[in-house]
Design brief:
- The chain is mainly alpha-helical and 108 residues long.
- 43% of the residues lie in helices and 4% in strands.
- The protein has 4 helices and 2 strands; from the N terminus they run H-H-E-E-H-H.
- The protein has helices at residues 13-26, 36-46, 67-72, 84-98, and strands at residues 53-54, 59-60.
- The chain has a two-stranded antiparallel ribbon.
- A hairpin with a 4-residue loop joins strand 1 (53-54) and strand 2.
- The longest helix has 15 residues, at 84-98.
- The radius of gyration is 13 Å and the shape is globular.
- The termini are close together.
- The mean pLDDT is 85.
Length: 108
Amino acid sequence: MTTKHGRVRAATKHELRRSLRILRREAGGAAASVSPQLQAIAECESHGDPTAIGGGGLYRGKYQFTYGTWAAVGGHGDPAAAPEAEQDRRAALLLARSGVGQWPVCGA
């Protein structure tokens, strides 16, 4: 979630659960709806580019996953090669499990 000054704020558990329900419901079809909080994180991390690669190749995709973090939320292969909707789903899962601390610069 963002404040009126554009800063990202922590979502409540209710907001996170709602976002996960929406993402799961829409997972089978077109791109899932992404929460404003995840939109802000993606914009900060990669300018919303699902193919972005940063940190000398260490950080990959729209949310700049490491391979280890990607695997921890059920991802396989290269995060930057995964469909955007899958990256959105896995980022929502990571946010729900671990909070914004997974994105120390863009989540704070």
